[in-house]
């Protein structure tokens, strides 16, 4: 029997795209408390089914696929530019394909305004009307309004007219930044990206026995299984160690490991890898709304990490920006050096190098040196900085990293940071090997 929370999520998912959603209406229709309705709406928003817009309300939107994550809906644009909707609210769920700044004559503008685009323009009513008739939404900058006729036209064509107090350059920068951030998110591989939707899930029920475990293990050629209750909620994990020496009619519920660690569809593969290494886990159940939807093994995670490393990156993270100023030099089979400049972007409020930047350089140097001795992926376990002097900006640094210990499961690297001949930092990094 699904919970009230699950019923509300299903209700929201089945609503037509573009529908407005309210806590009070859902509470009344489904006979639940307003608190329960509110929590479910927030969960639906986190899952990408709805979007809440100031002064408009909550709207059911089309859930984006991973490949289209860099596309924005007009509802999201309203929030990004702190805007207000003047007309065409029923089209807020639609996706914009490009934006055009209308700093040209209308005839020239028509060449660039396509259906699904967004025209960014000031107080030019004729441009507003032409854009809507061309199938484009309009974003009016400078806090200006538009005519009632154009608002009615926007409602008729179901294309939003948005107004923002920002100027055209600021609005374009905000939208571009949002798209750029999503490009970075697009590159982050999540559990949902590596989980096979068609693969059959092997699991046991709390009502099964040790004999059922043996039968399933023989048929599936696996030895670890999640254990679920009657509504598919994960209750435990069972492994050969749990069943060893137990009677065949013994209940699985009595021998399983209870309250196992689980991951969600939106958990990153990197985070799952860290959990598996740290906890010594071979199998992680994947849950959605607390129900079992799949499992991932250590082998699945390793393959995904290897795939990630081979992929080109589109968006730059802060780490990319910092490391782009440094070059790597191999010293020998167990040592590397990083050379680069500390720019003003890497400074703290006192004008010295940021502790986060320094930690990033230490981590990269230690990880890189250990990878030279290990043909496996690594998870950084511990970093100890035991000597540190202030480093100002606009200076060149050399980060020296040397592997001092390496075993099948662990690696240690000694890292020293120099400004010229002066030692400014000493650190020790320990990492665990993610075994294949």
From TrEMBL:
Keyword Thylakoid annotated: no
Pfam families noted in UniProt: 4HBT (PF03061), CBS (PF00571), DRTGG (PF07085), HTH_36 (PF13730)
Source organism phylogeny: Bacteria, Bacillati, Bacillota, Desulfuribacillia, Desulfuribacillales
Record key words, sorted: CBS domain
The keyword DNA-binding belongs to this UniProt entry's keyword annotation: no
InterPro entries in the cross-refs: CBS_dom (IPR000644), CBS_dom_sf (IPR046342), Diverse_CBS-Domain (IPR051257), DRTGG (IPR010766), HotDog_dom_sf (IPR029069), Ser_kin/Pase_Hpr-like_N_sf (IPR028979), Thioestr_dom (IPR006683), WH-like_DNA-bd_sf (IPR036388)
Organism from which the protein derives: Desulfuribacillus alkaliarsenatis
Protein name: CBS domain-containing protein
Annotated ranges, domain CBS: 256-311
Superkingdom as given in the UniProt entry: Bacteria
């Amino acid at each position: 029997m699904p919970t009230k929370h699950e019923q509300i999520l299903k209700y929201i998912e089945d609503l037509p795209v573009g529908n407005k959603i309210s806590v009070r209406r859902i509470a009344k229709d489904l006979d639940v408390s307003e608190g329960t309705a509110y929590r479910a709406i927030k969960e639906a928003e986190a899952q990408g089914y709805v979007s809440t817009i100031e002064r408009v309300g909550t709207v059911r939107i089309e859930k984006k696929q991973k490949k289209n994550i860099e596309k924005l809906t007009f509802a999201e644009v309203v929030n990004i530019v702190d805007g207000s909707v003047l007309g065409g609210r029923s089209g807020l769920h639609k996706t914009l394909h490009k934006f055009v700044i209308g700093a040209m004559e209308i005839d020239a503008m028509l060449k660039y305004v396509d259906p699904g685009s967004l025209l960014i323009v000031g107080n030019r009513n004729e441009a507003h009307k032409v854009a809507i008739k061309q199938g484009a939404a309009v974003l009016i900058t400078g806090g200006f309004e538009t005519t009632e006729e154009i608002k009615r036209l926007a409602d008729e064509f179901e294309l939003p007219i948005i107004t923002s107090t920002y100027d055209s350059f600021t609005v374009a920068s905000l939208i571009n930044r949002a798209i750029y951030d999503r490009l970075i998110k697009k590159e982050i591989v999540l559990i949902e990206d590596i989980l096979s939707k068609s693969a059959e899930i092997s699991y046991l029920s709390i009502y099964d026995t040790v004999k059922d475990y043996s039968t399933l293990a023989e048929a599936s050629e696996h030895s670890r299984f999640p254990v679920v209750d009657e509504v598919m909620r994960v209750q435990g994990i069972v492994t050969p160690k749990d069943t060893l020496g137990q009677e065949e009619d013994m209940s699985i519920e009595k021998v399983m490991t209870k309250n196992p660690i689980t991951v969600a569809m939106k958990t990153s593969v990197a985070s799952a890898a860290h959990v598996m290494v740290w906890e010594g886990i071979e199998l992680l159940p994947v849950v959605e709304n607390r129900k079992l939807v799949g499992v991932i093994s250590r082998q699945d995670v390793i393959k995904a990490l290897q795939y990630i490393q081979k992929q080109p990156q589109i968006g730059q993270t802060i780490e990319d920006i910092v490391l782009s100023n440094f070059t790597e030099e191999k010293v020998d089979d167990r040592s590397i050096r990083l050379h680069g400049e500390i720019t003003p972007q890497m400074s703290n409020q006192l004008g010295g190098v940021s502790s986060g930047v320094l930690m990033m350089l230490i981590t990269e140097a230690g990880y890189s040196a250990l990878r030279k001795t290990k043909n496996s992926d690594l998870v950084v376990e511990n970093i100890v900085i035991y000597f540190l002097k202030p480093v100002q900006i606009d200076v060149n640094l050399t980060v020296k990293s040397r592997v001092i210990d390496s075993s099948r499961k662990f690696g240690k690297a000694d890292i020293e940071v120099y400004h010229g001949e002066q030692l400014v930092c000493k650190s020790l990094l320990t990492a665990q090997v993610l075994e294949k």
